[in-house]
């Protein structure tokens, strides 16, 4: 069965079309923000055949046979031994060459064995350093990739997954049910709040908070099929930093003193990344940046990072032969004093 899973899919016609208005917009903005690196980033972003999907193994239905086959296929294990915090229970594999495993079909009564993802999306999860028994909030959780990754790292005492969009909330529930055993699903709280209200609803409750914010999502925006809507988003994009800051304010309120918060996006945009974090750091005296430069050094074999000018913020950029980005993440700590 595993061998069937590993068989490459027949080459499909490339359905993805690049949306020219969006590419032109990126060209102007990102050539300024990233300088020479933009040329490579653009080449990778516009070539879906170069995107490398990582394979996150599910510790709740561990695929030993599949793991052997991944080794035979030349996949290597990500992060092992390199990061200051790396839970042995999280196993993620990446191929040295662009390759995408087929997605697994859900079979009633069987948990899925692996989840395909952008490997860079594990970095914000790892930066959170989740330990067994901690209370954790995933403020913008659908479709659930990062919630699932959090549960590969540790057994939180309480996991609260929130998602504002009701359709995406269904998708989140499906992810949890397909990968997580029922007794554990039962202790996960799922809510449908506007994340901006969470701080008032549950002040100073959580040891750890993840804000994987709604953002420009460069990769999917670039391949929008409706160019009129895509063009509309260029002006709507200006409103995103305000929403992101409001979500962060709410997250800070929900965090207990001494707790850790990680903010992440999948855009290259400085306005939605570094500027949002600078704004928050400038307006709170009890929020401190946490230095995460060591993470970049430790995993530079698999990821390329662009300079952010921040010790607490890293930006993974798409690069040849590396796990894909974009993924920005920043780590903050709430101090005990106000
Ligand atoms: N963390 C998810 C994962 O790893 O699978 C991806 C999250 S996605 C980047 C951002 C999510 O935020 C979207 O599902 C979006 O519907 C949700 N969102 C948008 N506005 C929100 C709000 N005001 N409160 C909470 N979630 C919101």
From TrEMBL:
Top-level taxonomic group: Eukaryota
Protein's name in the database: Uncharacterized protein
Native organism: Ovis ammon polii x Ovis aries
